[in-house]
Amino acid sequence: MKIAPEDLAGLIDSDGIRQKLSDLTRDNGGNGADLKIRSEVLTLLKAAMKEGRAEAERRLNEDGGGFRCAKRLCHVQDELIRIIYDFAFHHVYRIKNPSAAERMSIVAVGGYGRGTLAPGSDVDLLFVLPYKQTPWGEQVVEYILYMLWDLGLKVGHATRNIEECVRLSRTDMTIRTAILEARYIWGDEPLFEELVQRFNDEVVTGTSSEFIAAKLEERDERHRRQGTSRYLVEPNIKEGKGGLRDLNTLFWIAKYHYQVRSQHELVKKGVLSRSEYNRFTKSEDFLWAVRCHLHFLTGRAEERLSFDVQREIAIRLGYTQHPGMKDVERFMKHYFLVAKDVGDLTRILCAALENQHVKGPRGQGISALMRRLRVNRSSSQAKPVEGSPGFVIDNGRLNTSSETIFTDDPINLLRVFQIADKNDCNLHPELTKLIRRSLKLVDSTLRNDPEANRLFLGVLTSRNNPEKVLRKMNETGLLGRFVPDFGKVVAMMQFNMYHHYTVDEHLIRSIGVLSEIEKGNSGDDHPLATDLIRTLQNRKILYVAMFLHDIAKGRPEDHSVGGARIARKLCPRFGLSNAETDTVAWLIEHHLDMSTIAQSRDLSDRKTISDFAHTVQSLERLKLLLILTVADIRAVGPGVFNGWKGQLLRTLYYECEPNLTGGHTMGSHRQAVEQAKEELDAQLTHWPAKEREDYINRHYKAYWLRVAPERRLAHAELIRQADKTGNRLAFAVTPHSFEGVTEITVLAPDHPRLLSMIAGACHVTGANIVDAQIDTTTDGFALDTIFISRELPDDADEQRRGERITDLISKILKGESRLPENVAKKNPVKGRMKAFNIDADVQVNNSWSDDYTVVEVSGLDRPGFLFDLTRCIATLNLNIGSAHISTFGERVVDVFYVTDLTGQKIANIGRQEIMRVRLADAVEGQVDTSAAAPVSRSVS
């Protein structure tokens, strides 16, 4: 990409600065080495640099040219270095008769060598000498470096003679790459030209394969460090997959192998078509615009496009909000499409190298490059694919023997992926190019063709590796063309901290997770899903629903409802029956229900289970919904699914299953209570009979229904030991490694602020509460169980961590310690959270439970959120029966089952409104503690 000379005009007045420096030196007796003069020189240069950069930013905001901005900043930097060198040469370290050794060429290398700079980029310099270093050379280099450092620049530098440059380039790939990018700035130009000539003759010639293999391996390692997907929602625009470094790597390879100086020459060489070259330059310009804006905005060399800057960058680049999509989401979609283009360009260049049969270093046989690119050594290796005329397996990759295979029969655009899946092979880069160039053949006729849809459904529901094939189908652009509704979510990001990938990447990953579950290769995180998927009557329904569950994202309507509508249109096209279509649409419409209920409802509450069972209606749908929910959560991103969420989903499944196979009645609940009492009585045979009877009578009915048998036994022993020792406080800590949580049980005299004090203690110690169950005994004690996220891998370490938390709770309850003042005050939102604005939402519902009023509070997560809510609930004179805490990235949803002090639901409309207002204030950290609840909780 070229830039016109007028684009660089007016950034820095080099001639004017030189004249001022000359006058300054003359006025001070001609001694440029004087420290006073140096200080004035530095002041003058700082002002010039500041003005030049400000002008570059102004022009960037005006014309939006990212590449032009990078060139302008580079021009300012070049001129500053030239001015400093000239001042040092003529006014500080003057030599009247320089020897042959007293010559120097100042050369830009690395990114600076490409003639582009971001505002926060390092300035990489190579001082080239003809022979060994001289005292004069040392002084000039030192003067230039110190001046640049004093200007606040980060300078990478080396001083070498030409022989050293050549020798080190042979053995060090980093130095070789730096010199490959070498660009003359100032000084002795013949010296620079000699370096370039010797580098090309003695280093580059005959070493293409070695260099290319090293650069591709370096790129792969960088991707592993940054994250292997280019669709991460907080990408690194420089080092990430699809970023500027990938474009740099492409050009390094092309420059090294094809001996070109600019990207435009690759068109003349036949490596890139004119349209592909345009994609290269447009991608480069866009990425440079984003990077320059990012550096200007943050005031530092920030390369990660984090949430807290994305919206501001979007505004700077002129993106606006559209129905269903925020301005920042439109900007990030453009970013990911550019990242995809960069990946396409990589494959195109690799294909060109293969076609030229790039040979490896002599004596190595198949070189590292050949192994990396799997280059075919002979066309005779291509073998026809049995039963698929026109397709061949070429050195393990699928290719075609005819350039017209798709125009002859467009259905082959789908068949090629079915063949790739069946034979477990990758596509040859030339075949990938041919597919992309044939996308215009995908029209309504092909989309509605029964055979084409049969082939697509076969790929989608394959028992081999459907994720791999679907991703390749997406990368070629065919998936979005064949299923236009999918094309609308390609590269679409969701501006939240919960989803780690773009929508299309999430959908494809979810198919991969589903496949792993079906194969039994997904570990022990979700054993129930692994068992149930083998019992499904129709696995096809599950895969189609999984593929379509988020396909309506980015539209004004609710994506679950919109997705169900799209499914009713697409499923018949895919060949599904009416009954199958209905089930797929139902799964999509309700794909969030099971996760929401499991994480935010009381699963021991009969109404919760009966309502959910009424929605599900059949055991087969329950199985499908559980498996889809597990795969959906796992595909959101690393670490989102954990054992605790899996346990909640399993509990909901097992509680709902009897409703669908026979149904619970009030009688069965009474039977369940009696059975639970009998089970515990049988476990306590080492207790005296009277003691067993008294203990069992200490618990209300709700306790027996919702507490698991093993926990009932642990509670009994805890309470008995407290009774024997006369302690009114008792604690138990139980790490659960599989669920990824630690259970903390607190026995204490009932108090309206008990849960609030527990939450405050957890906040102070950095513990994250994920669930809470609250019970009260008939003799006035509270038995509260909280579950906190596990932090330490070893059970013994986690046990000690839990005991430190219970020790603080004990001291607070005894009055020996107070919660720090900062807990009771509003905790400011910090870091990436500042990028989000979530309005507080409070729902008060009496229909979700027969016994409790259910209060659902959502808002922006922050430290002390739960502490403030529980304090507020205490001041509202409400009893908490259970609490359920769910976090979805930056958004937190806390659900409380509450009654008034007499154990009744909150039926008064006016009081409900007061609850909404006060709790909404508490979400913002504003808690009115003037009205404290005067009495303890009661239990129905």
Number of helices: 41
Number of domains: 5
Judged by helices, strands and strand pairing, the structural class is alpha+beta
Spatial strand arrangement across the major sheet: 9-10-12-11-15-16-14-13
Residue share in helices?
55-70%
* Beta strand %: 5-15%
* Sheet of most strands: 8 strands, antiparallel
Contiguous uncertain segments of 5+ residues: 357-380, 932-940
Could you report the average pLDDT, rounded to the nearest whole number?
86
Q: What is the tally of beta strands?
A: 16
Approximate shape: globular
Rounded to the nearest angstrom, the distance between the terminal CA atoms is: 76 Å
> Compute the gyration radius: what is it?
34 Å
What does this structure look like?
By secondary structure, the protein is α+β, with helices and mostly antiparallel strands. About 55% of the residues lie in helices and about 10% in strands. An eight-stranded antiparallel beta sheet has the order 9-10-12-11-15-16-14-13, sandwiched between helices. Helix 2 (about 35-65) runs antiparallel to helix 3 (about 65-90). It starts with 13 loop residues before the first helix and ends in a 17-residue tail after the last helix. The relative contact order is 0.05.
Task: Looking at this protein, list some descriptive labels.
940 residues, alpha+beta, Beta Polymerase, domain 2, Four Helix Bundle (Hemerythrin (Met), subunit A), 5 domains, eight-stranded antiparallel beta sheet, four-stranded mixed beta sheet, 41 helices, 55% helix
Brief sketch in words of this structure:
With 940 residues, the chain is of the alpha+beta class. Helices cover 55% and strands 11% of the residues.
